């Protein structure tokens, strides 16, 4: 069963926590700001890169929002409050098996590519910091040339291999410790959304356009940034509370 007010809760505070976690989940659904500049930097001009990226971002947001609304709306309309967080594994049945297996294979394929793309800014930042900190270290800065049969030669950096392997292993271990789909997504979305999607773009715009302090535009942008900050903080608190409750239950 379901209602216009959404999933029922045992108390008002539980309803508030559910809303806050939902905000975190929604924020996690739009993390493309992590790689926006990375993609724009690879575009050719003319036309100008910012115009191409603006058009691509608009199309991507419209398509993504449409599919998310369809998934959430149709799922709730069909299953009501019994709608699971993970539509592929939360129903307790797995028939037809071939369809579930195919869907999971598509998810794995998507995550393999997406994980590499979204992690590139993290890799680049950490590796650059170590390279600047230890410029004379052979382990960090030396690239070995490897030639395998039937394959072209490629460079191998030991620090890069060790760091990225440790990064993937640590993320995997954390995921195993907290196997709670919606709660973890809510925490990650709340942590990433405001600084990367709101704060930095607003600050860059203010500096690039030399917007004077206390003008109407300056006040509106600052107010918008603070509003989203408090919403992200609210989502983070609720998602952490839900994560702890799920872990202890």
UniProtKB/TrEMBL annotation:
It is found in: Endomembrane system. GO terms for cellular component: endomembrane system. The lineage of its organism: Eukaryota, Viridiplantae, Streptophyta, Embryophyta, Tracheophyta. The chain crosses the membrane at residues 58-77, 97-118, 161-181, 187-206, 218-240. Residues 11-244 form the Amino acid transporter transmembrane domain. It comes from the Eukaryota. This is Amino acid transporter transmembrane domain-containing protein. Keywords: Amino-acid transport, Auxin signaling pathway, Membrane, Symport, Transmembrane, Transmembrane helix, Transport. Coiled coil: none annotated. PANTHER family: OS05G0424000 PROTEIN-RELATED. It holds the Pfam family Aa_trans. Carrier protein involved in proton-driven auxin influx. Mediates the formation of auxin gradient from developing leaves (site of auxin biosynthesis) to tips by contributing to the loading of auxin in vascular tissues and facilitating acropetal (base to tip) auxin transport within inner tissues of the root apex, and basipetal (tip to base) auxin transport within outer tissues of the root apex. May be involved in lateral roots and nodules formation. It is a multi-pass membrane protein. GO terms for molecular function: symporter activity. GO terms for biological process: amino acid transport; auxin-activated signaling pathway. Belongs to the amino acid/polyamine transporter 2 family. Amino acid/auxin permease (AAAP) (TC 2.A.18.1) subfamily. It comes from Manihot esculenta. InterPro entries: AA_transpt_TM.
